Amino acid sequence: MTTSPKTPLKLNDKGRIVLGQLGYARQKLRNRAHNLLHSEMNANDLTQSEISILAGKDKSSLSRLLGAPNNFTLDTLSDLILAITGKEVALSLSEPNDAPKANFDTMAWLEDQPETELVARVIVERTRETKPVDPTAQSTTASAIERSDLGQSDMLLEFLREGA
């Protein structure tokens, strides 16, 4: 039976794990605990006020704990998970530096589209998130502006097609 880890640890000259690797592992665990709490809060549709009552924590402490990844005590993590889910925390081990594989290599909707339509789609999506673009600022969009039946997205697509 071997007791050495599969992934080599970085050791300093005294034979101890380097502080950077310890710090990385610690922060990764804090992030996992923080993400677990928030995902379970959302899944169980609970507010911070409801959790503070169930867990017996004051609202300001709970807000601080949930605001950013913290160095929770195991007791606090256990209390919060139990209050949120009614379940106990289960722990598991993973190799250090093991990163999960990406869910995708490319965005499927980017493939099989002509470049002009792709650029238009990205612009349209971004304009939906921001304030409307003033179409009169571009002289080449005049033909699209004259047709009142075109919406903002259609005008952008028309503009890009004219320029192509």
Write the layout of secondary structure elements.
Elements: H1 19-43, H2 48-55, H3 59-67, H4 74-85, H5 115-129, H6 142-146, H7 152-163
Helix pairs in contact: 1-4, 5-7
Written overview of the protein:
There is one protein chain. The chain is about 50% helix and about 0% strand. It is mainly alpha-helical. The protein has 2 domains: about 20-85, 434 Repressor (Amino-terminal Domain); about 110-164, no CATH class. The radius of gyration is 26 Å and the shape is flat. The termini are far apart. Mean pLDDT is about 75; it is low at about 1-5 and about 140-150.
Cα distance, first to last residue? 66 Å
Number of alpha- plus pi-helical segments: 7
Biggest β-sheet strands, sense, barrel? none
What is the mean pLDDT? 74
